Amino acid sequence: MIPYGHQDIDAADIAAVVKALQSDWLTTGPEIARFEDAAARRVQAKHAVAVFNGTVALHLACRALGLGPGDTLWTTPNTFVASANCALYCGASVDFVDMDAKTYNMSVDALEKKLRTSRKKPKVLVPVHFAGQPCDMRAIGALAKKYRVAVIEDASHAVGATYRGEPVGNGRHCDLTVFSFHPVKIITTGEGGMVLASNAKLAAKLRLLRTHGIDREKSKTRGAWYYEQVDLGYNYRLTDVQSALGTSQLQRLDAFLARRRALAARYDRLLADLPVMRPWQHPDGESAWHLYVIQVKQRRKVFETMRAAGIGVAVHYIPVHLHPHYRRLGFKPGDFPAAEAYYERALSLPMYPALTDAQQDQVVAALARAVR
Which of 165, 224, 278, 344 has its CA at a distance of 20 to 30 angstroms from the CA of residue 289? Predict the structure, then answer.
């Protein structure tokens, strides 16, 4: 089976992990800070806080921004459930802004209308850089500023992407940015995530919440053994072993991006004559190409035919509001028609750096048979 995504681990990655295993630190050691510093430099962020996974990163970002009972978070229905669940973890409510049928990202027009007409404005907005393509953050950021809404960029798909010539994660149009380092993402730490911040107070809050809400500052005057829990935090830390892998993977990021972009361009050429809709890219951004999503008629038939041929196609995503848990919260089919129409036809083709040209040819040949 050719999977839709797969990690790429080389000898240097393995050596970095082995070195960490042989060190005096397996967790909360120097590798974490080294990884955070490297990531912050890469995306021109002031602060980076590594955590155990991308969902944790979203949760901590919401907590750091003060999201809680009585507040609302808005996100897109075309995302993994974590982009919405993070609000529920904080006791807040969730609503959605429909997607743009062309970019598959949050629609700026729908956002502007909803902000203008809704009686209750969100406290936090979570636009998602779907498949690695950045949202129109300049427009979204301007609307957020006008309506006094905090913004968390969910860039779980977009490590290495750029927007208007600048790296995603630099915080120019948002309060916080979240990355994911799951094995199928652009780089991996096994499981892992990160929150990037421009504001030092937000970064300090994230670090406090990451480690049980414990403050050791008073140990300087009361003894090295002393600490205080000053907030209700969590054990959300990344380990030194994972961080060592992340730092090594970061050194390969340019190569990963180059291969993903070459594969995307090759798909564009190979699929030109097939009855499928290829993904459109906005000229303001350069995608990290976490996913290559096409749209096809009779999606279930095509999906099952390709799976039977050994091609691990996938579907990203079932709109969040259609899941049973969210239907119990009052959402229903028809609420967000662009996302629902897209979902009925969406199909993710294999996309990862180790995918060979020959394997990609095999994918396209199977797709051609399935759609014809």
Answer: 344
